[in-house]
Design brief:
The structure holds 2 protein chains of 2 kinds. By secondary structure, chain A is α/β, with parallel strands linked by helices. Chain A contains 11 helices and 10 strands. In chain A, the strands form 2 sheets. Chain A has a 6-stranded mixed beta sheet, with helices on both faces. In chain A, strands 2-1-4-5 form a 4-stranded antiparallel beta sheet, covered by helices on one side. Chain B is an all-alpha fold. Chain B has one domain. Classes of the chains: A alpha/beta, B mainly alpha. Chain A binds chain B through residues 48, 50, 69-71, 74-75, 80, 82, 86, 88-91, 99-100, 102-103, 105-107, 109, 111-116, 118, 157, 161, and chain B through 143-144, 146-149, 151-152, 154-155, 157-159, 161-162, 164-170, 172-173, 176. The structure holds adenosine-5'-triphosphate and magnesium ion.
Chain lengths: 251, 287
């Protein structure tokens, strides 16, 4: 489904990602973990075209994304939920999601000016918000909502795009244990219904519980890949990952 | 009676001009400090063409097209620079326009263009035409705001980077906002030219740009009703108090500052907040 090949990213002389390659298979729920500053978010940004790598390539369903701009990559079938939440603050939570759900109407400006009704998209938004347990804030504006809600709004907006692959950057952060478990269950359920997901997460217990496969990166280098239980038993990974990042991983 | 007819005509033209800027500033969130230049382009194009014998309607349409073409060019600037830099760029474009017009003989230079042909509708007929066009632009604005294009403008004005990350081609939408906004500015300019029958570079100087911007900001950027009311009121203002004309920049500058300080969302903001207050009080009383 998604292929990332030999990606190297340099920020002002500092190498943030070095020669990383991996693939996400169709229908897979793949976890991407690593300590703070490992380069996970940077990889995500390379996939969406926000960050340009010095080398390497990205492709989705055998089509190269390298020459495409960010919005074209999203249109090619990527749904992104960012680590730092970016709700549209001038509209309600429901409108945020409804706007994304109307992606077919906004693909081309001519179609957008000829489209008026928002009813179908508002209904769709309700449905998604309900799925993520934040239906009660549909009418609220994002300002003043707790982070746990905004994180789920971010996921809801990505889901509304009906993407071929869902990229989630720490969706469980800011949620309490019960909410995190519930959302993880939802992700697993979506995955079982066929949604391909790439999940970046610090909440290791949930990652190990729901992901079929994980990739570990540290200092911009891929240091492990495979079945979660097996990978986490590898002594090298334990020392690299748990050694410096254990506290973050546990929180 | 003639005076009132002229007043209403100017009011209609002001409303079209303010609504045109409202699409760029209020809907799409792009700042423009040089809007008068686009009114000027419409005015000059239509004036010259009608003097050459082109029919009024065709000349006005051409004025809209010329303004929109330059509007799209300035729109490209909005893709490269944001906020304060865009403000300075648009201001620069307006000065550039004045500088060029002043030096072109075929545009009348400093002397301007006089004896612009009358559309032949009579004073009342012309007033009705202007008011109907103002109504049409207002209805279009209301429709646009509620359409998915308007929804997209909201999103672009709110956070364009995030808009990109949900698949929006932000550049195209910004250019369209500039194209629509400046086309209507061209319309307002052309209508103005055929109303007063004489234009010169001073008719479209920086003070005029600030005047139009004041109408939008004071009315409440984005609010169609607010902008219409502010444009109507401010267009009458200098005629009630002739002396204000000399202190225009001072008065509008002062009003702009006051609004920015006390109610950044303009009159429409004051109105919605008081409405919410009244409702709140009512529900408190009942509950
Ligand atoms: N725009 C940038 N400019 C300069 N350096 C950056 C930039 N973005 C990230 N970095 C650096 O690149 C490295 C990788 O950062 P990244 O955000 O990808 O880590 P991460 O794995 O997502 O960490 P976390 O778990 O804390 O979110 C870090 O050292 C970071 O400081
Ligand atoms: Mg990160």
């Amino acid at each position: 489904m998604l292929r990332v090949d030999n990606i190297t990213v340099v920020f002002g002389g500092v190498t943030a990602v070095k020669d990383v390659a991996f693939g996400v298979k169709n229908g897979e729920l793949l976890g991407l973990i690593g300590p703070n500053g490992a380069g996970k978010t940077t990889l995500m940004r390379v996939i969406t075209g926000t960050v340009t790598p010095v080398s390497g390539s990205v492709s989705l369903i055998n089509t190269s994304l390298d020459r495409k701009s960010s919005h074209e990559r999203i249109r090619a079938g990527i749904g992104l939920s960012q680590q730092i939440v970016h709700p549209f603050r001038s509209m309600t939570v429901g409108e945020n999601v409804a706007y994304a759900a109307g992606y077919a109407k906004t693909r081309n400006p001519l179609r957008s000016i000829l489209s008026y009704s928002r009813k179908k998209e508002m209904d769709k938004a309700r449905e998604i918000l309900k799925l993520l347990d934040i239906e009660e804030v549909a009418e609220a504006t994002p300002t003043n909502l707790p982070l746990g809600y905004l994180k789920r709004l971010e996921v809801a907006r990505a889901l509304a795009l009906q993407p071929k692959i869902l990229l989630l950057d720490e969706p469980l952060a800011g949620l309490n244990q019960m909410e995190a478990r519930k959302l993880a269950d939802k992700l697993l359920e979506l995955n079982r219904l066929g949604q391909t997901i790439l999940l970046i997460e610090h909440n290791l217990s949930e990652v190990i519980r729901i992901c079929g496969r994980i990739i570990v990166i540290d200092n911009g280098i891929k240091i492990g890949e495979g079945e979660p239980q097996k990978v986490m038993r590898d002594p090298d990974i334990r020392s690299a990952y748990l050694g410096e990042g254990y506290n973050n991983a546990a929180s | 009676m003639e005076y009132e007819i002229s007043l209403l005509t100017i009011m209609g033209i002001s409303i079209i001009g303010a609504l045109s800027l409202n699409i760029i500033v209020g809907f799409c969130g792009q700042i423009s400090l040089g809007h008068a230049a686009f009114l000027g382009m419409g005015a000059y194009t239509s004036a010259i063409l009608t003097k050459m014998g082109v029919p009024f309607a065709a000349a006005v349409l051409a004025g809209m097209v010329v303004a929109a073409i330059f509007g799209i060019l300035v729109g490209f600037a909005s893709l490269r620079v944001r906020h304060d830099f865009l403000a300075i760029t648009t201001m620069g474009v307006a000065f550039l326009f004045l500088g060029i017009v002043r030096k072109q003989e075929f545009l009348g230079g400093e002397m301007g263009i006089a004896m612009i042909p009358d559309p032949g509708l009579g004073k009342v007929g012309y007033m009705i035409l202007v008011l109907l066009l103002a109504l049409a632009v207002a209805l279009f604005s209301i429709y646009l705001k509620r359409s998915w294009m308007g929804f997209t403008f909201d999103v672009v004005a709110d956070d364009e980077d995030t808009a990109t990350l949900i698949g929006i081609d932000v550049s195209s939408y910004k250019l369209i906002a500039f194209a629509i906004g400046t086309a209507f500015a061209g319309l307002a300019g052309a209508l103005y030219a055929h109303h007063v029958k004489f234009i010169d570079p001073e008719s479209f100087n920086f003070v005029e740009s600030i005047t139009v911007l004041s109408m939008v900001v004071i009315g409440g950027a984005g609010s169609v009703w607010g902008v219409i009311i502010a444009a109507a009121a401010l267009s009458l203002f200098p005629m009630w108090f002739q002396f204000i004309d000399q202190y225009k920049l001072l008065v509008y500058g002062g009003l702009l500052c006051a609004i920015m300080l006390f109610s950044p969302d303009g009159l429409s903001g004051i109105f919605t907040r008081s409405l919410a207050n009244i409702r709140g009080r009512e529900s408190n009383a009942s509950g």
